[in-house]
Amino acid sequence: MVGGGILGLAVAREILGRHPDADLTLLEAEDRLCAHQTSHSSGVIHAGVYYEPGSLKARLCTEGAVELTAYCRSKGIPFDRNGKLVVATEAGDLARLDRLEQRARANGVPGLARVGPEVITTIEPAARGIAALHSPHTAVVDFSWVGDALAADIERSGGSIHLATPVVDADPESDGLAIQTGRGSLRAERAVFCGGLQADRLARLTGGDTEPRIVPIRGSYLKIRPDRAALVRGNIYPVPDPELPFLGAHLTRGHDGSVLIGPTAMLVAARDGYELSTVRMDDLRDTALWPGTWRLIRRFPGATANEVLHSISPRLLVREARRLVPDLRPGDVEPGPAGIRAQALGRDGKLIDDFLIEKTGPALHVRNAPSPAATSSLALARLIADEIT
Ligand SMILES: Cc1cc2nc3c(=O)[nH]c(=O)nc-3n(C[C@H](O)[C@H](O)[C@H](O)COP(=O)(O)OP(=O)(O)OC[C@H]3O[C@@H](n4cnc5c(N)ncnc54)[C@H](O)[C@@H]3O)c2cc1C
Question: Above 90 in pLDDT, residue 303?
Fold first, then answer.
């Protein structure tokens, strides 16, 4: 196994559950687990509202959410089923809300209800809208706590986890793979790569397709000051633009009671660009030389500019959030965290929407696992284990 984010850990646990005698080693580049996307997400256990019926995302999110909450219960990991409202604030949103409702119903989102303005304010007293979808089963959790519990399961089942062990090369051989790491080499009969932001580079090591490429898309958040956090009880989302791949800046009350606004979506110059000032020449070169990057920007010039503005101006992001919660003021927020999405992008400028898995001989690569892959991790792990074993 390569990659100690929630997905790599879930796959390792699933394989050991099926094959207790397997000699399983998990290699993680960082000196701690879940160091990247998994610990920098919104922490929402999505109920499956958004995804195209029939897609892997649709199936594995609804299944995964049920499995994940059951897993959290069994391990005593706190989560809060605080629900979600997707709020239409103007008449122009209604047709898109209708389409979203059809999708959510096709996906079997549990407890879904269409509600009007009065019910919106019963659920979220500070929110305003003309109609909304309410998903009462949406929950929040700290995905890295889930990662820690999965790691404990792996070690209890005899697997070994090596931190600070980056894979630097992997050569397919007649009977397996020769893997070079920063701390020595090993042989593996089979290997699953869940490398997140490095997924495309890892796939190329074993002869995988040269596309899609990963582009790092930074999502930054603002945090509502604790004395104003009562403005939001659960999760309040706008109606997303179906042309765009992200859900729009939303308000999320985390399991610890803190409320975040975001995330924004801005292409950055480093795959670990948690600080906007971080530039890595190899990452910048890979993104800038990829024709898909420029085609993407040309397809969405307005949205690209908007996201840059929201990323650098808290005032504008608050203005966006005030469409959902009008009482929110610029003085109510402080700087929040940021995460980097590993988003696969085709040469044609299209963002790969669904989860994408590629098998090359003894190696299986997860090439695209954006949101809701954390929610879906236990279900996606079953699918991957079916493929590799
Ligand atoms: C801002 C943001 C908000 C999000 N919100 C949500 C949400 O609310 N709900 C949801 O379900 N999902 C959400 N997601 C998506 C979710 O976080 C990811 O889909 C999920 O964490 C993917 O898990 P992963 O294990 O594939 O990737 P990661 O957590 O990124 O793990 C990949 C691991 O591979 C390791 N690695 C990379 N290269 C090597 C190498 N050469 N050798 C060894 N190890 C290597 C990395 O160090 C890393 O630990 C969000 C993501 C972001 C960025």
Answer: no
Are 11 and 192 within 8 A, CB to CB?
A: yes
What pLDDT is attached to residue 305?
Answer: 82
List CB contacts of 305: < 8 A, sequence separation 6 or more.
none
Per-residue pLDDT, 262: 94
Output helix, strand, coil percentages for the chain, rounded to the nearest 5. 40, 25, 40
State how far the Cα of 34 lies from the Cα of 315, in Å rounded to an integer: 31
Which tokens in the block code for residue 175? Answer: 């009977």
CA of 89 to the centre of ligand 1 (A): 32
Taking the C-alpha atoms of residue 331 and residue 178, their distance in angstroms, rounded to an integer, is 56
Q: For residue 334, what are the domain limits? A: 214-234+241-351
Residue 172 shares a structural domain with residue 57: yes
Ligand 1 centre distance from Cα of residue 132 (Å): 30
Nearest CA-CA partner of 344 in 330, 328, 355: 355
pTM: 0.96
Check pocket membership of 166 for ligand 1, CB cut-off 6 A: yes
Residue bearing the CA closest to ligand 1, atom 4:
41
Q: Which two tokens mark 389? A: 């074993």
Amino acid at 148: D
Residues 148 and 293 in one domain: no
The total number of structural domains that make up the chain = 3
